[in-house]
Structures are given as C-alpha cells and as structure tokens.
Structure prediction request, 759 residues.
Amino acid sequence: MTDLTHPGYVRPARRATRRAGAVPGSGIGQGGLALVLLLPSLIILALFTYGPLLQLGWDSLQIRQGAGAGGATVFAGLANYEAVLADPSFRRALINNLIFAIVTLVPSLGLALVFAMALARSSRLNSALRSMLFFPVLVPLVAAASLFLFIFLPGVGLLDHYLGRLVANPPNWLGDPDIALLSIAGVTIWKNAGYYMLFFLAGLQSVPPESYEAAHLDGATPWQRLRYVTLPYLKPTIAFVAVIALLNIVTQVDHVFVLTKGGPSEATNLVLFYIYQQAVESYDVGRASAATVLSLLALLALTFASLGTLERAFGGRAA
Amino acid sequence: MTLTRRTALGAAFAASLLGGAALAQAPTEIELFFPVPVDGQLARDMNAMIKEFNDKHPAIKATAVFTGSYDETLIKTRAAMKAGKPPAAVIMSANFITDLKIENEVSSLDALIAKDGSTNEKFMGQFWPALRGNAVLDGSVYAVPFHNSTPLLYINADHFKEAGLDPKKPPQTWGELVETAKKLTKREGDKVTRWGLSIPGNYDYLGWMVTALTMSNGGRYYNEDFAGEVYYDTPSMLGAVTFWNDLIQKHKVTPGGVVAGPAVTTSFLAGQSAMMLLSTGSLTHVLNNAKFPVEVGFVPKNVRNAVAIGGASLIIPAGVEGARRDAAWTMIKWMTGPEKSGWWSRATGYFAPNMAAYDTAEMKEYLAKRPQAQVAVNQLVHARPWFATFKTVPVRKALEDEVQAVLSGKKSPKEALVAAQKAADEILAPFNKETSLRNF
Prediction:
C-alpha cells in the first residue's frame, strides 16, 4: 500500500500494459497460453461477476406481469428506469447520499490528516495512540453499529448520559429526521478515520526531511509548512484516499440497516438501501435491478473520473 | 487399539446396513423455517420442540432452520422457492400471508383439513376469533396461528404509588391516560427527567401502534376483506395521530421524534418512562428484568376497546407436494395443538393461539403466578386482525414515513395523513386495476 504513493509507481505499470497489449499480435501460441493462464480467473469472474451483471441488466428490462401471475415477467423496455427516476424516494436517497458523502468525506479525511501529522514521528506513545485510533477499523461495521445503537439511546445511552450533564435536552440522535443522517455520518467517520490515517502516515514518509529543513531556514510558519511543503507532497495520497472513501460511502450501508432502517421519514435512506427496499419490501426485482444498474453506472463514472484524477496527481508530481 | 476400533466401526457399519434394510422406508425429511423476533432463548426452545416431535414421529425427520427476523424469513423463503426447493413449513409473520396468497406463493390447507374429516370452520374454531382474519382468506385456510401478541399498556407500579395513583387501576380512556401521564412526568426546569408515557415509533412498530390507537378510536386502518384499500385519511386515524401528537407537543408527556422499540423498553426498565405501550410478546422479558413491580392494562380507548393482533402463523409454501406435504401438516397440527401451544406461550410470553391451551392445568398454574399474562389474554376478546394488504410493507411504510414527520414536529397530522393516503393509493393502484377497477 505504501508503494502506491511513490511517485514512480504508475508510470512503469502503464508502460507494462502497453507492452502486454502488443502480445496477441505477435503470435497465436503466446495468446493461447495467456488465455489458458487467465482461464481460471476468467471462469470465476464469469460465474460470479459478469454472469450476474448480465442477469441484472436483463432483469432491469423486465416487469412483473401483475399480481396473481405467479411472478411471470414481460419485457418492458426502459419502464423500470423511468419508474425509478420518477420515484421521489429514489431522488431522496440520491440527495441523502450526496449529503452523506460530503459530511463524511471532508471530516474523516481532515481528521485522518491531523492524526497522521500528530503521530508521524515514531515513539512508543505514538505507536500506542496509532493503534488506538486504528482500533475502530478492526470492528466490523455491523458490530460497530450495534455498539452505537446503545450509545445513541435517548436518555439512557452513553452519549446522553454524559451530554445530559451539560445540555438540558440532548437531541434524539437517531429519531430526529434532521439529525439522524449526521449521526450515521458520525459513526462512519469514527469507523474510517483511523484507516485513512494509515495512508497519510505512509504518505508522510515520502516527504523529504530536507524540504522541511529548507522551509524552516526560510522562516516558514507551521501553517506555511503545511500549505507549501506537506500538502503538495501528499497530493497523490489525498486523491487515492478520497477515491477509497467515496467508494466506501456508496457501498457500505450496514449501519443504516442496524441503526435506522432508512428512517425516520426516509431521512437516512441511501441508494443501496433503496435498492434493498425495492427488492425485498416491494418485491419488485425489475425496479431494484434498474436502480442497481444506475448506481453501478454512477460508480463506474466516478471510478474513471477519480482514476483520471489519480493519474494526474501522480503524473503531476513526477513531471 | 486400532484393530478393535476398526472392528467396532465395521460392526457398526454392518449393523446400519442391516438396520437400513430392516426399515422399509427412510423417514420423510422436512424442514421448518423459523424466525426469532425476540431474545435468543427462543432458538433453543424451538430445537427442543422439534427434537420432541421427531422422537414421537419416527416416520418424519424434521429440521428447524433459523432464518433471522420476520422480514428475513420472508426473503429466505422466497429465495428457496425461486431455487425450486421450498421449505416444507414456515413460521411466517401473520400479515404477510395475504401478500403471499396474492403472489401464489402459499398453498391452501383446505384439502388437508378435509382429508382429516374436519371442516374449515371446525378447524379454525380451535383458535381465538381475532386470529382467524389473517389465516382464512376468501374462505380458504392458508395459515395456522402459532404465536401471537397484542399491544399492552405497561405500568411502573412504584411511580404510580409515588404520584398517589393506584397501580391496580391503570388508565382506561384517552382522557385518563393524559391525566395520569401528566402526573407521572417529572421535570427539572426545561429538562424532563421522567416521561409519563413512551410509544415505539420505528418502522413496523409505528404502524402497529397507529393501528391500535385508530381501532381504539373506532377506526379500521384497512379493509379486512379486500387487499386494495387502506383508510389513512379518515377521521378515526386523524384523531389517533392527533392524540399522539398532542401527547408530545401539547401535554409534553411523551418524548418527540422516533423512539425505537428497544429504546422504549430500556427507558422503561431504567425508570425514565413511567408507562409504555408495547407488545405482549415482551412481557416475559420486561417482568424478568424490571427492578420494580410492573402492572399492565388494556390499551386505553376513546370510542371502544380494540387492538390489532401481531405474531406469526405456520404455512406450507406453494410447491410442497406428496409425502413432504403430509409430514408438514402432521407437524403443524402437532405444534399448534393445546399442549404445545401452551408450552410455547409459557416459554416466550406470546399468548397461545389455541384456546384449549388455557384449559390445561399447567396454563392455569402459570396464569395464577403471572396475573399480568391474564390481562393480556383478557384483551384478546377485543382484538382484531392485523393490517394485511397488497404489498403490506411499502403500504405500511407510506403511513409510517408521514407519521414520523408528525412525531418530529415537521407536519400536521392532517397534512401527513393526506400524503400517506396518496402514497399508499399509488402503491395499491396496480392491484386495484386488476381487481376492483377491472374493465369488463
């Protein structure tokens, strides 16, 4: 993982890809060998990834033939997509996801950076603190959410127990539609900040000490050192962590299941949870599939965009 | 050592071969999907029950498969049916059966009942009348009630005495409930240190509570005879939601926002709520864990005493045929008979669906020791079927999302119910198009 942040990492890899691309033209034997070598993973991918993807695409174009037809379906074109896009619950989930992404991403990255800079120097105390901050990463998200179910309990929970001494009426953390999403974001930040800290710790190792010395000699303030020395060196790491964090936000809803089930009043309904609701609660596989295809497309677009950013970040440093 | 062991193994193998030959037929293997909606002890009790069944029925080998919550049990049953391997029997949330019937996923039990020389009326006559509505659909029996519950008013007797009230006389009307809750609520300046009454408002529980209040207000919630209608935007439900809203906003005796079921129980057990509305299914848990005397009462009424049932029934999914079907039926009858019904009730706190269970000596002894359970049984006379429509869960959620907005002070009850009715009607529209609004 540390090597990913190394400036020279991407370039050779890209060259290697280009060379590999030239192989099939050079001889069928070699191509055949490559195919044979790839076959095991190809079979597994086909069975568990591409196959289901095709099935998903097909299901998203089907519509149930009404009640009593025993689950028979007919081809319906893009009707499911239209229904999903017109569904206010889907739009609500989309907006919730955007808000959730912003209020989770920015603080967790910021905290991770602060932790990493505070604990960058290796000492016995620092490594103990690092382990402590990393600890939430080791707790499975479902277990963490169950813990927070207790922490957030109105009146008797751990949070209200202490907060109650300072504030007269602490908010209903999971039961108030204005606050529930923020509470969920809080759990996510608590869970992930330690993980991102690791990447930043690794990234900080690549900042040459001479740069700091030079900055010091020039009389740079701590803020200027951060702004003009640390952050530019960390740019690739930040880009990388941002992509990981974004994917985590879209693909993890375990805590929503445990804490709020999307409520109250759909305030914590995220896109992935919406898909679950369509498939399970409404028993509408077509709509669930359409919503899945839409979110997969969004994820793909996001990944390509961020990979582009990543390459630029790495490339920019090397040039 | 090895030699003797090998000989022993060989002997055992030979014996099993012989035994296999001696047995004319292998036992019919069936599996039962069962959810555990309350605490963990239930899974062990279920395995004990199935073991006893197998011991008494050598021709059948039943396996109990734990399938999570009610919702998860529905998902897993549907997944198993899609894979072509439906379980022989399932303990299914009682209000999912209408939906399963509409989707042709549950089989009618009429033929099995007739084969026993009984009639539908005689067979269902064993069970409390309130439970029949969710089991008999369009004159056919689709499910056999297994364990059931109703909402109940729980009371902290110490708090009552402290406020000069008699815990043996719980509030019976909405007016009395408000007055009692006011006396029980404790404040320090702006801060409420003890709530008069807590009501769970999370998904599923909320719908059930609105039903209880609506029915107590003379209303119906849904059309018991037709799966395409709900009565959200009606005076009786408006009164119910307004009452709940007033408890929060006007009288300030109930916490605002959504408080989930477990949080309500915890708050009651911690002495932070003097009263709560909760399921009879939690009775054993609450009585075992409360450090103070607990009394219970009917859900207070405005127009009449009425509550909806909850709980689960045994079904045979569509596609279970032949010997497996007969074996499943044998098991279902055994599990819902008076003796087992009573045993399960005492183990869990749910009430026994089979009325004859209450004539057994064990049950009489149990109720003498737990008079609170007797109150729960007494309320059964006033119980009614549980909401069950086309797409029960989304239709219920359409109401719950709106009422949650009321509880959080974001919408007025009228606004919320109009919006809920509109959303529910949209979900029900495809069903109505094929049934009530079909073109001829």
